[in-house]
Design a protein that fits this description.
The protein has 13 helices and 9 strands. The protein has 370 residues and is an alpha/beta fold. Helix 8 links the parallel strand 6 and strand 7.
Length: 370
């Protein structure tokens, strides 16, 4: 008895599509149930500022250990190799390599304004984003590349801030490839690249607090895109970051991660091409430590009661601005419950795209750090 089976690519594809639909629906249902159970367990206590801070500290512990895979044991003290590069208009430029752990370094550029050599000043960790660099932060360009940093580090130093620009993994040589590779290694080690980078930034705070030019309790952070992600998570994890500005990242995290069709429809309305991370090769956004998803308003709840600003552009092709505004309302409500609504701010640039806008952020940082 002979059997005829259609094993052509078209036939296999038709059967595969039906299977895939059911798998997609199943995993999304599991994720939604898991996420709701997790969200119900995250409770901030608004009955007093003291109780709020205590509840946030417990949630912060969960973020670091459950959400990011935990941190290594922190070495005692901090070491750094420093190379003087010369003078810019604001002050002295150094290339530094901060020892995070034995044999592990984080490179950075440090710009120390002249006034800070006479009297200690506030400091800003200024974080580049995907494809960017510390050099971009300080106003140096790359041929044929659009510098979305708009020289913010150079400008902040001109205004009197000590500026430290760390070099995270999303620049040459590998840009996206290196980030995926190191996150996979971190996962196999029971950690995550993002979690380790937040430990690195915490160590950069250690370093800044050793600098005689820096007021130890006046350190802020300002970052864009991947650097905005870093700013949001680092300020949530590290209470010594006294004020934070998250630029061109803050969003509805569930939609940005998972809802590609919904975002595409919003993109057609806005003449943009919004997309979700499910449709990209950014594998570092997906690991066991990121499940459940930590919504952006919950992360900013861990920054509260410290000052926090969201910066977003009306024509940013990466971030759907209406989602950013709606998510920020949840942040604003939390600060309002504590009677400190002036510490939460949103800057919507009506003409801006995916770039540092600076002016509102500068005024915000001046208010809370200067």
């Amino acid at each position: 008895m002979s059997v005829k089976i259609d094993s052509t690519s078209n036939a296999l594809s038709e059967r595969g599509v039906e299977r895939n639909k059911k798998l997609e629906a199943y995993f999304r249902q599991v994720l939604a149930i898991h996420h709701k159970k997790w969200a119900d367990s995250i409770v901030f206590d608004y009955t007093s500022l003291e109780r709020y801070c205590a509840s946030a500290e417990a949630i912060r512990h969960r973020l670091i250990n459950e959400g990011l895979g935990g941190w290594p044991e922190r070495p005692v003290g901090i070491k750094a190799k420093e190379e003087y590069l010369g003078e810019l208009e604001p002050g002295s430029l150094y290339r530094v390599e901060v020892e995070i752990l034995p044999d592990v370094i984080m490179p950075a550029l440090l710009l120390v304004p002249g006034n800070a050599k006479k009297r200690p000043a506030s400091a800003i960790i200024c974080q580049h984003g995907f494809g960017g660099s510390p050099e971009w932060v300080m106003g140096f360009g790359t041929p044929r590349e659009m510098n979305y940093m708009n020289s913010c580090g150079h400008r902040l130093a001109s205004a009197g801030y000590v500026v430290l620009a760390p070099h995270i993994v999303c620049s040459p040589p590998g840009i996206d490839r290196d980030r995926v590779r190191f996150d996979r290694l971190a996962r196999l080690a029971g950690n995550s690249l993002l979690g380790f980078e937040m430990f690195e930034i915490s160590r950069m705070v250690d370093y800044l607090q050793t600098r005689p030019e820096v007021v130890p309790n006046r350190i802020g952070m300002y970052g864009i895109s991947q650097g905005g992600l870093s700013t949001l998570f680092a300020a949530a994890c590290e209470p010594r970051i006294r004020a934070a500005v998250c630029s061109c990242y803050f969003n509805n995290r569930w939609r940005k991660m998972l809802e590609g069709e919904w975002l595409a429809e919003r993109g057609r309305e806005e003449s943009q091409q919004y997309g979700d991370y499910m449709s990209t090769g950014e594998d570092d956004k997906f690991n066991p430590w990121s499940a459940p998803l930590w919504p952006d308003h919950v992360l900013s709840g861990l920054i509260c009661p410290r000052p926090f600003m969201v910066e977003t552009g009306r024509y940013d092709p990466v971030i759907y601005w209406r989602d950013a505004v709606e998510e920020f309302k949840k942040v604003q409500e939390g600060y309002r419950k504590l009677g400190i609504e002036e510490r939460a701010a949103l800057s919507l640039n009506e003409r801006g795209w995916h770039e540092i806008f600076y002016d509102d952020a500068k005024r915000f940082l001046d208010k809370w750090l200067m």
